[in-house]
Amino acid sequence: xxxxxxxxxxxxxxxxxxxxxxxxxxxxxxxxxxxxxxxxxxxxxxxxxxxxxxxxxxxxxxxxxxxxxxxxxxxxxxxxxxxxxxxxxxxxxxxxxxxxxxxxxxxxxxxxxxxxxxxxxxxxxxxxxxxxxxxxxxxxxxxxxxxxxxxxxxxxxxxxxxxxxxxxxxxxxxxxxxxxxxxxxxxxxxxxxxxxxxxxxxxxxxxxxxxxxxxxxxxxxxxxxxxxxxxxxxxxxxxxxxxxxxxxxxxxxxxxxxxxxxxxxxxxxxxxxxxxxxxxxxxxxxxxxxxxxxx
Length: 295
What we know:
37% of the residues lie in helices and 18% in strands. It is an alpha/beta fold.
């Protein structure tokens, strides 16, 4: 155990986040490392606020001495103009999920893409990346698209209910990965029929957004399916995919590894990955939503 330090404060800004496991993961790891670490939820829904209030919320965190903030739906792109600096990968993605608050500066990072890549490679180490379809072109979608292309995907087709968002993300990724084929998918049935993998990167399937992001009959046994939603861990999409013979990767890997990266950035300490994975598994198996906001 390290010597006890001064209190560190961090938080998560997002909508409908009361059941997030992020505070529990951060605070348990802090406790294991001898740090008095308080991690709070700043729920837009609970406080009856919206993305336009983001600047005031970040300023409030700075005033309270927070060392950092995690940013989730629907603020991962809205946060960009409020930052003083941004990491290279976050700049490429056009989305930030982690902000270090230090010396009057707001420095944006993205630990989502690395978290997704780690989760996918651990759960499906031999996933065929030759032809991937992605549903969702928002902040999470930017991270997952970047991740699969970094992992070597040769073809990525992006679908979103907003075609302009899909085109914007596809164009962005095509610039960063000119060796790959990055396109916009307008017909899911056509592209999924010959795809090797499906990445789901929208809130559909979360407790507050139940349902399926596509008709179940489009899933086929030659397809692996990767999810970003982790509460519930077994979404309707993953259930349907298993029933149709697909190999699946749940959103837990992304949840844990993005937290691993954020913990390191906030505290300057090296987290114990195995310990954080075991803690996450224990929380999900027990049906725990989150720990009280005390260290």
